[in-house]
Amino acid sequence: MENTTEKRRLELEKYFDPNGPFASLRVAQMKRAWKQSNRRQLNWLENTYLPMLFSGIYLTSKHFFYNITFHILHLFGLYKEIPGAVTYQYPEKPRPLASRLRTRHRLTKRADGSPRCVACMMCETVCPARCIEITAAEHPDVNIEKYPAEFVLDLGKCVYCGFCVEVCPEDAIRMDTHKLNIAEYSRESMIYNKKRLMDD
Amino acid sequence: MNDILIKFILSAGTLMTMFSFAGLLTWVERKQSAVMQDRIGANRASIFGFKAMGLFHVIADVLKMLGKEEFIPDGANKFLFNLAPYLSIIFALVGFAAIPIGGALVLSDNHIIQLQAANLNIALIFIFAMMSMGVYGVVLAGFSSNNNYAFLGGMRGAAQMIAYEITMGAAIMGVIMVFNTLDLQVLDRAQGAYMLGGWIPKWGIFVQPLSFLLFFTAAMAETKRIPFDLPEGESEIIGYFVEYSGMKFGMFFMADLVETVLVAALMTTLFLGGWQVPYLHADGFYFPWGAHVALSNLPVVILGILAFFIKLSFFIWALMAIRWTLPRFRYDQLMNLGWKILLPMSLINIAITAIVITLLG
Question: What 3-state class would DSSP assign to B325?
Fold first, then answer.
């Protein structure tokens, strides 16, 4: 029994060893370990500041010459598929978005173009920001109990949690329009009605 | 009359070239930093949808600066406050007068033009005097603004300039001793000699490498740009120009860039042979393996001017690369570096150079 405790202790030891393989798991311990074992006097060459200066210049120059080569090649229409920069020129060339990214909402439609929504009020109930307001009305089709006479979604309030999409039993609301540029000049125009939500 | 006209064209040409170089540097700085950091850089300003790789941002900036309100704080000394930016930029620009941008252009047998706005025999001392005078712009701006931060910036500027001006002066003593002249045109011509069996040109960087390193560091400090931007110190004190707005601020900004060009030109002249092209003599190329290409005077001079501007651009590139790579020094590190490392090293350099020159006779 005692032997196993000792074994266990030795096993655990490596997690707390400042020089061991798990030192990086604990930031504070890592700092202490750094101070205790890795701090050393800089030698005279390092003290001149020149090695770090040159390695820094080497790094930035490497990026400079790599990128400038491709920028120049692009001017001649060559290697257009290899970019010279990691940035996206946003309004002209939007950034690729993940397909599951939560973006602006839309109301899905039935085959006849009417909304799938049955005005069950689940989304309105679950919404933590209380940005959805549904006015229900009786549907002429007896198989469908209700339909939304008006579906108002205030994007100025929305927190994009996606609860409304998850809770919807009819798959009537989705957040897959991939529209991010929602900017308006007034709060009123941030409020989307049924028509605007169904447009796309 | 003809001579005056030639001098006028020469000085106007030098001034305009250098000033447009400095103006272009605002674009170069943006683009170079962007390319170094994997970005595209400013490219939105356009005239009729024509973007010219962001070159119009220079014009846009100037227009913006000119359109801004010129604000003068209440307690400021109005005369000195208005004088400071002019001092800053004028002394930076005047220095270019003594920089030779090309060799001797032979018009006729008795008419030889040195491509240098002012053919001074004390050119080096003149440039150093002007660069030192440039500090007055910084100091006056700081002291006349009636602002504690500006005052701090001015004091830092004064202390830094004094510390590094001495190193700078001491660093080039080695070059002056080797070539035995203060005239930059003569100095450039002397760098056309060759050593080690005619393979290596006798440029300042090869005969005085330590001097070059010291001068490079001190010159960077002189331009008040990032590794040494204590007088500006954007993050803690905004700097000596904190109270300036509009084009007066723009002039301080330009003065920094003009000084960058001046320092690059000075390094080119002193250490890279100025307008010297390797193996190019007054009558053509003489390669060390024996080949000879004959050239007349005009192409030689044009090649020289081209060489000068290529070297200048290289140094500007290097200064920009360092500015966008290194973090800023702490103030005590700056003073340590200036007084305890660079100054003794430059004095040792002078001593060693003196001994070697004496031994070689």
Answer: coil
